[in-house]
Amino acid sequence: MPDIKDKVLQAMHELPPLPMAVQKLLAVMRDENSSAVDVNQVISSDQALAGKILKLVNSSYYGMSGEISTVTRAVVVLGFSGVRNVAMGFGMISAMKKLGGTSMAAFWDHALAAGAGAQAVAEQMGPQHDPDEAFIAGLMHDIGHVVLAGAAPDEWRTAQDAAAAGGDIIALEKDGLGMSHASVGERLMAFWQLPENLQASVRWHHNVKTICGREQPLATIVALGDVLACIHGGKFERPLEEEHLARMLRLHCLEMSQIRAALGHMDEKVEEMRVFLKISDEGDAVGTSTAQGDAATAAVVLSTDENRVAWVSALLEHFGCRIYPLKSYFNREPGHEAVELVVLDPNSLTQQQLQKMLPFLDSLSAVSCVLRDSAGSPLADKLAETYPVLPYVFSRADVLAVVNSSAAV
Q1: Are 156 and 149 in contact (CB under 8 A)?
Q2: Rounded to an integer, what distance in angstroms lies between the CA atom of residue 258 and that of residue 253?
Q3: CA separation (Å) from 225 to 112, 132, 218, 296, 355?
Q4: 139 SS3 class
Q5: Distance spanning both ends of the chain, measured CA to CA
Q6: What are the residue ranges spanned by the domains of the chain?
Q7: d(Cα 332, Cα 330) in Å, to the nearest integer?
Q8: How far is 257 from 206, CA to CA, in rounded Å?
Q9: Cα separation of 399 and 12, whole Å?
């Protein structure tokens, strides 16, 4: 569709530049001979940027409430890397506001959670990774969506809806708009002369070969942040498939205890990072996509696959569920009556096994649901005709929907 692609290319050519102070700051910091004095001078020359940095460094985001009164001290606290990341974040958000386009509240909700998730993952992956850089990469990884939505809103929405129904978002965008949000985002980052690793993280965060490898660790961190954002809540994009997620976790030796720790840190950081967006004058665009309410009191995971049991249990416990032992549940031991949710894993059970178990499960008060990856399976599809579905990467809202599904019957 050349007409649509022309619109996108025109929008690319009309992209707003980063604020001049941010451009100067990045240029100074690329110069090996620059000093803290040079950085202070650039920041101090722009009252708006200086004010935002001082507000941020004195906020709950950094835990320095009211202690930092000068730009010089702020630079010491943040460090060169921190100053660069903060300035880039403020600059990119300021420029994005000028792009216009359709309402992007869902975009900002997802971006905030992905930034928090990427930062939390970077902290778990070791000191060689910069958590603040990971935050900026996660916050801006989907920036190409803003350009596409502004240039061709109807076609962009069509691609989004098709992707939500199970399609490949990158392929759909290429077919319908002539280019993907990933490639557009990379061009935008390059236009802003941002670091190459940030450009690459935007370009490759959907590419399975790249994120499951070692060549672009920041892209991998962003992809994992994307997964954590889907767990936190919101449906802006579909999560990574189980097969690829498992490969990423194995490659980087990430244990479920680390994923659980990252999820806990992410929830805290989302609230802290709302401060960042508010200071950036974009706070009003952020909604509250995370569903509220209690998840199941207790749950049972019916699976013989240790990895899938560990994953589902970790997410359920993150939402406040207690995992009840499977054997104790089938023996109807004391406490089994508190179980509200039974998660059936068709990938590790045979149809014959399920046929023997289902009458027993149906006789109890707990809601049984089917754990289903986006790839699906014949048995999972068959069970889904009778039982509610819980996706492999699920949120609190997904759990609540399943638990409450019995009330709607």
Answers
A1: yes
A2: 10
A3: 10, 13, 10, 25, 38
A4: helix
A5: 46
A6: 2-16+99-285, 17-85, 298-408
A7: 5
A8: 25
A9: 41
Question: Could you tell me the pTM of the whole model?
Answer: 0.87
CA distance 354 to 159: 38
Query: pLDDT tens digit string along 210-265?
Result: 999 888 999 999 999 999 999 998 778 888 888 899 999 988 888 999 999 999 99
Spatial neighbors of 377 by CB under 8 A, at least 6 apart, are 346, 347
**Do 2-16+99-285 and 298-408 have matching folds?**
no
CATH 3.40.50.150 describes domain 2-16+99-285: no
User: Which residue type does 168 have?
Assistant: D
| SS3 labels along 93-120 | HHHHHCCCCCCCHHHHHHHHHHHHHHHH
DSSP letter for each residue of 208-227: HHHHTSSS-HHHHHHHHHHH
Read off the amino acid at residue 364.
L
Tokens of 206: 């959907």
Place of tokens 């319908």: 176
Q: Please write the tens of the pLDDT for every residue from 314-332.
A: 999 999 999 999 999 999 9
Whose CA is closest to 160, among 169, 151, 148? Answer: 169
Distance (Å, whole) CA 83 – CA 74: 8
Tell me which CATH code domain 298-408 carries. Answer: 3.40.50.2300
Spatial separation of the C-alpha atoms in residues 284 and 109, rounded to whole Å: 11
